[in-house]
Design goal:
about 300 residues, mainly alpha, DNA polymerase, domain 1, hpI Integrase, Chain A, 2 domains, 3-stranded antiparallel β-sheet, 3 strands, about 5% strand, DNA-binding, CB, Tyrosine-type recombinase/integrase, Integrase_catalytic
Length: about 300
């Protein structure tokens, strides 16, 4: 039995799960939030003489937990901040539905990072190597996958992509992507992507399945996140490295930034509601960018 299943009838977890689902959070996000709250509860029970109860927990307990993650567990900043975000969501829910008298996590601050954020991207050479490896494999669905990743799609957006979302023609091909917050966005695609999709569709349309997802596993059901991860992991291992699907998104965005594409255009293409994140993360020069600039002097 999964640990979170043991908590579903405690601490309003079942109601909280429904609350997150009604916010259109993905299954993986819901499970992550629940698991993070469980981590806090287990820490609380070990650190205190009394057992955890939502109504008796205090802001000091949350701060102590944050300090525990930072100084004892030596957890990464992103890991800590995700747990803080989960707790803020949980206690906001409890307060909003009158399960507790006050939102004790309202003013809980995230851990600040030192220096500019680090983009977990891949360089042009690495991208070309894995793209070449995938093309050489001959797997048409893998080729279509890498071309969609090259267009900065999120892994969940690829999983939920339907055949009817493809609009392929000689000029002006595009796809309609169902992204975060339940919003559709139109993404123009280049000729390489269009050709890869056309080649794959010849095979896909022969597969009989009740699902209309573009990508289906060997069981003729939609791929899971881990299923697509394994495809990329298999090919990246052959070139002697490890690449996650999300790194292709970072690569594509960084490439557009480097090519001088306006941030407003990039934000529209990749599904960011604000250009601030793009400016803070992707417009930050890497060390090799600085070195190349100096060499031009």
């Amino acid at each position: 039995m999964i640990k979170r299943d043991m908590y579903m009838d405690k601490y309003y977890f079942r109601e909280y799960k429904t609350y997150l689902e009604n916010l259109d959070k993905s299954e993986s996000t819901v499970n992550t939030y629940l698991d993070n709250v469980i981590t806090f509860i287990e820490w609380f029970n070990e650190a205190n003489s009394d057992s955890f109860q939502p109504g008796t927990c205090t802001t000091i307990d949350l701060r102590d937990f944050r300090s525990h993650l930072l100084t004892v567990k030596n957890a990464k900043v992103n890991t800590i901040n995700l747990k803080i975000m989960s707790l803020k969501s949980y206690f906001y829910f409890l307060h909003s539905y009158n399960y507790i008298k006050q939102d004790i996590a309202r003013n809980l601050k995230k851990v600040k990072t030192q220096g500019p954020p680090i983009v977990k991207s891949i360089d042009e050479q690495t991208f070309r190597k894995i793209r070449r490896e995938i093309y050489r494999s001959g797997y048409k669905h893998h080729v279509a996958l890498i071309e969609l990743l090259r267009h900065a799609l999120r892994i969940n957006e690829i999983i939920t992509l339907k055949i009817d979302n493809l609009h392929l023609k000689e000029k002006g091909s595009f796809i309609m992507v169902y992204g975060k917050q339940g919003k559709y966005r139109k993404i123009p695609i280049n000729s390489d992507c269009r050709n890869a999709l056309i080649d794959y569709l010849e095979m896909r349309q022969k597969i009989k399945s009740p699902y209309d997802n573009l990508f289906l596993s060997e069981r003729k059901t939609p791929y899971t996140r881990s299923g697509l991860w394994k495809i990329i992991d298999k090919h990246s291992a052959k070139i002697g490295t490890h690449i996650s699907p999300h790194q292709f998104r970072h690569y594509a965005i960084k490439k557009m930034v480097d090519e001088g594409v306006p941030l407003t255009v990039i934000a529209s293409l990749v599904g960011h509601s604000s250009i601030q994140l793009l400016s803070d993360v992707y417009a930050v020069p890497l060390e090799e960018d600085k070195e190349a600039a100096i060499e031009k002097l």
